[in-house]
């Protein structure tokens, strides 16, 4: 998966922009203080705060999030009720990988200024990363409602709105939003190219829904892991396998299977970073007692893209399908996948799950720590590396290790094999005595460099040799993952 991801993501350089404080075509001006010494002091504090915010925004633009965070904190010391300072702080905390602190800062900004442009955009992106798309859409609708007419139409909140509508496969609303974006102000050429791709996928589906309807409350199938996670399924009545790829939005179907099922082409789309391909609607996918009906899918050559040691697959199921379930569990220990419409109460320790948006990929990420240290850092959950974990030198050293533990590296790529005493996810999931790899190069590798450019820094990968010891349950709508590291149950039924 990681090689496939590198090929897609590094070919794009289509990266998220950090929320700025102010509209795409306007900036914030500090209010003047009242008369007298008190008013003059207040005005001076506001002016000082505004100046610090301007410097902090410049720091963010140069990737200096530590300096930006300090400037934002200084701005708040001068003016504790400055919503823009909280918005900048939220952006800086996000870049530092502090999701909870970032979200808290954005919410504080909105508490002080309900229509603060930067805070509503930034919080919307945070909510999207955590799978809370309906709330993200509501925030952008609030900004859109403040516009004074078509001349004041802003593209950025509509793009954030479209990202969520696309993930939820809201076809008609998504097409309407895309059309409005092209008449709005703002948005880079790269972002507008993404809008075109999303619109090209959604537009042919108008009038052909409803899509991705689930029949059955819960179901199971087998689970195998090689290059990808895969399960047995019946696709259009034919026995096949599906690949589970939460890093993709759209479903994909093998060209040979689409032809065998005689599926009608309803349109064409060039996905971000890909070639133009047909769009079809798969009438039915069955996994155990669950049936998924009317699934839009992009036709691709699976032999080229998705070769897997567990045999040929017929489809890839991405987030547009997975988000229709309250819980999707991958019990790697017993070789079972479980699907449930209701989330229920999954077994295992709860952790925050984020999807870092690279447009072509949505990177599933959780926070870990190593060797009993307090330093936490975010990693890609479920990568096919050969070690238990692959970690950047930055986060390895921040975990109280010495430079001479990893230098010189073992090879020209800058990799160093190490023994990890412990890998922890939160306080309840711990694995001990593991082989790890430290990436000493700068940048650590092409994928991590691309993710860092998106405005969120990952410290490495949590690989299948470790993940396969667990039962991992995704609750995408909650932005949560539940990890059960105990022994497998004798009865693997959900």
Strand content: 25-35%
CATH superfamily of the largest domain: Tetratricopeptide repeat domain
Strand order of the biggest β-sheet:
4-5-10-6-9-8
CATH topology label of the largest domain: Serine Threonine Protein Phosphatase 5, Tetratricopeptide repeat
Number of helices: 16
The termini sit apart by 27 Å
C-alpha Rg (nearest Å)? 24 Å
What structural category do the secondary elements indicate?
alpha+beta
* Unreliable spans: 1-34, 489-494
Share of helical residues:
25-40%
Give a quick account of the main beta sheet: strands, pairing sense, barrel closure: 6 strands, mixed, barrel
Overall CATH architecture of the largest domain: Alpha Horseshoe
Q: Care to count the β-strands?
A: 22
Count of folded domains: 3
Q: Please state the average pLDDT score.
A: 90
Looking at this protein, list some descriptive labels.
494 residues, alpha+beta, Serine Threonine Protein Phosphatase 5, Tetratricopeptide repeat, Cathepsin D, subunit A, domain 1, disordered N terminus
What does this structure look like?
The chain is of the alpha+beta class and 494 residues long. The protein has three domains: 14-23 and 40-205, Tetratricopeptide repeat domain (Serine Threonine Protein Phosphatase 5, Tetratricopeptide repeat, Alpha Horseshoe), CATH 1.25.40; 213-324, Acid Proteases (Cathepsin D, subunit A, domain 1, Beta Barrel), CATH 2.40.70.10; 349-484, Cathepsin D, subunit A, domain 1. It has 16 helices and 22 strands. The chain has a six-stranded mixed barrel. Strands 2-12-11-21-22-13 form a six-stranded antiparallel beta sheet, with no helix packed on it.
């Amino acid at each position: 998966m990681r090689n496939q991801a590198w090929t897609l993501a590094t070919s794009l350089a289509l990266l998220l922009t950090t929320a700025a404080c102010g509209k795409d075509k306007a900036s914030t001006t500090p209010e003047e203080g009242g008369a007298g010494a008190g008013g003059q002091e207040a005005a001076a504090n506001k002016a000082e705060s505004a100046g610090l915010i301007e410097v902090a925004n410049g720091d963010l633009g140069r990737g200096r999030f530590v300096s930006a965070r300090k400037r934002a904190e200084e701005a708040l010391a001068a003016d504790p009720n400055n919503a823009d300072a909280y918005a900048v702080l939220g952006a800086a905390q996000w870049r530092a990988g502090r999701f909870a602190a970032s979200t808290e800062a954005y919410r504080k900004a909105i508490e002080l200024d309900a229509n603060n442009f930067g805070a509503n955009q930034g919080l919307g992106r945070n909510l999207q990363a955590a799978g809370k798309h309906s709330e993200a859409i509501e925030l952008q609708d609030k900004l859109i409602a403040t516009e004074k007419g078509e001349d004041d139409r802003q593209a950025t909140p509509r793009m954030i709105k479209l990202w969520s509508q696309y993930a939820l496969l809201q076809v008609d609303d998504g097409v309407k939003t895309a059309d409005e974006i092209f008449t709005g102000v703002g948005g880079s050429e790269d972002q507008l190219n993404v809008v075109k791709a999303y619109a090209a996928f959604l537009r042919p589906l108008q009038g052909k829904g409803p899509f991705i309807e689930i029949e059955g409350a819960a179901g199971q199938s087998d689970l195998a892991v090689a290059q990808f996670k895969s399960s047995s399924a019946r696709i259009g009545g034919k026995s096949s396998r599906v690949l589970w790829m939460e890093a993709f939005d759209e479903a994909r179907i093998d060209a040979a299977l689409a032809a065998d099922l005689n599926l009608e082409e309803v349109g064409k789309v060039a996905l971000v970073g890909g070639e133009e391909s047909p769009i079809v609607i798969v009438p039915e996918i069955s996994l155990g007692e669950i049936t998924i009906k009317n699934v839009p899918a992009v036709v691709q050559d699976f032999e080229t893209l998705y070769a897997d040691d567990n045999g040929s697959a017929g489809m890839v199921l991405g987030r547009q399908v997975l988000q229709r379930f309250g819980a999707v569990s991958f019990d790697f220990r017993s070789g079972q996948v479980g699907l449930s419409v209701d989330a229920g109460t999954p077994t295992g320790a709860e952790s925050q799950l984020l999807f870092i948006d690279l447009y072509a990929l949505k990177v599933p990420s959780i926070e870990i720590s190593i060797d009993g240290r307090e330093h936490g850092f975010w990693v890609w959950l479920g990568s096919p590396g050969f070690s238990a974990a692959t970690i950047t030198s930055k986060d390895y050293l921040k975990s109280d290790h010495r430079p001479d533990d990893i230098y010189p590296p073992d090879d020209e790529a800058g990799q160093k094999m190490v023994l990890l005493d412990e890998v922890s996810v939160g306080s309840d999931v711990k694995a001990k005595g593991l082989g790890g790899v430290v990436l000493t190069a700068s940048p650590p590798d092409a994928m991590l460099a691309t993710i860092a450019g998106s405005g969120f820094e990952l410290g490495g990968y949590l690989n299948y040799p470790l993940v396969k010891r667990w039962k991992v349950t995704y609750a995408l709508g909650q932005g949560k993952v539940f990890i059960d590291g105990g022994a497998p149950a004798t009865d693997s039924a959900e």
